Every structure is written in structure tokens, then in C-alpha cells.
From TrEMBL:
Highest taxon in the source lineage: Eukaryota
Organism: Ostreococcus tauri (Marine green alga)
Biased composition (Polar residues): 1-21
Protein name: Thioredoxin-like fold
Region described as Disordered: spans on this chain: 1-40
Length: 216
């Protein structure tokens, strides 16, 4: 074989061997899309683990937070001395007549000196009418908690047992010994007149109630 032939044969062999190695190298090297997918999967796994860890931590700390809140509440100092509310409004003739009827019916009004709606109810009737109302104060000794020199008083007085669901609370006894009441603020004095009639077992003329200023 001539020298030129040997060189050509060797060059062909080298080229073939190089192509073979390059081909094998490509099969071992991951593609760019595969790398991106693997990275995305890894991020998703990390996010999932982080979410689980955060949820577990929040669940573990929740009872501790509740306990801390209760402890902080127990340490809170409250000192609100009792102060009788002074009614400023003048009573209308209607309010005075209703108040007299309430007194005759044995009605009672339960409330607390710090209750804004209770004081608004008193203003609705006026100071003259309130003189006829049997008002029951549920915090006659004020409100105290962790206050030096004072016994804790955070619950209504015993005289209000059974009448603390909502204030102001109007209660009127019925002839059979039971009671009828209205929770919440009354908007008009005549609403109380209707309550008196209901306690007596009388029916209210609703048409007259909604079209006149008073109920007979």
C-alpha cells in the first residue's frame, strides 16, 4: 500500500472514531429541557415541604397563642367605678303615661351603667318618666379586675341572674306567673304599651298601632 493510501486510511479511521465518541457523548449528556424539568420538580418539592412545615408550625403554635392570650387577659387591670347615669331628656306626655302603665303592670328594666343602649333607652323615656320605672342595675358595685384594693367584679350582680342575655331588657309579669320581655332598645314608648297588653293576654290592633300615635 502506498504512503498516500495509508494516510487516507488512517484519516478515515480517526474521523470515524471521533464521530463515534461524539455520538456516545451526546447520549450521556442530559438535554436542556430535561434539566429545566428537573429543576422545576425540585422547586415544587421544596415548596411543598415548606408549606407542610409552615402548616405544622402554625398548628403547633396555635394552642400556645391561645394560652398566651388568656394569660394576658387575666393580667389586664380594669377599674370602672359605678356611676349612676343622669338622664337629660325631658319626658313627653306619652312617655310619662307609658311609664305609669309599666309601673302598674309591675314591669322591670334590667341594664348596666356602662351600657350605651341602656342609657339611650332612658333618654328615650326622659327623666320624668324614668321616675316611674323599676330599673335594676346589674353592676351596682362597678367593674373591677386585678385592681389593687378592689375585689374582682366582672359578672353581673346576683339580682340579675337569669336576666343577663341582653340589655336593655324589659320584663313584665303575666297573670299566670310567667314573664314576657323584650331584649334590646325600644325605639318608641308605645312599643312598651303593646308589651303591657301582650302580658295581659290582650290582642293589639296592629292597624291602629301602625297608623296612630298611641294604642288604647
Amino acid at each position: 500500500m502506498s504512503q498516500i493510501a495509508r494516510v487516507s486510511t488512517a484519516a478515515s479511521a480517526v474521523a470515524k472514531n471521533t464521530q463515534s465518541r461524539v455520538g456516545r457523548g451526546r447520549s450521556l449528556r442530559p438535554r436542556a429541557s430535561e434539566n429545566a424539568q428537573a429543576g422545576a420538580d425540585d422547586v415544587d418539592r421544596r415548596r411543598a415541604l415548606f408549606g407542610l412545615s409552615t402548616a405544622a408550625l402554625a398548628s403547633a403554635l396555635s394552642p400556645l397563642s391561645a394560652i398566651a392570650a388568656e394569660e394576658e387577659k387575666a393580667k389586664k387591670v380594669v377599674a370602672v367605678p359605678y356611676a349612676k347615669y343622669a338622664v337629660q331628656a325631658e319626658s313627653s306626655e306619652e312617655a310619662i303615661n307609658v311609664a305609669k302603665a309599666l309601673k302598674e303592670a309591675g314591669a322591670r328594666l334590667y341594664g348596666a351603667f356602662w351600657c350605651e343602649n341602656c342609657n339611650k333607652q332612658k333618654e328615650l323615656l326622659g327623666k320624668e318618666a324614668m321616675e316611674y320605672i323599676d330599673y335594676i342595675e346589674c353592676f351596682p358595685d362597678g367593674v373591677y379586675q386585678n385592681s389593687p384594693g378592689h375585689e374582682d367584679r366582672v359578672k353581673p350582680d346576683g339580682i340579675c341572674d337569669g336576666y343577663t342575655s341582653a340589655w336593655p331588657l324589659w320584663v313584665i309579669p303575666k297573670p299566670d306567673g310567667e314573664e314576657i320581655g323584650i331584649q334590646g332598645q325600644i325605639k318608641k314608648p308605645r312599643d312598651l304599651q303593646r308589651l303591657i297588653k301582650e302580658a295581659k293576654g290582650e290582642k293589639t290592633d296592629l292597624l291602629k298601632y301602625f297608623t296612630t300615635l298611641e294604642v288604647e
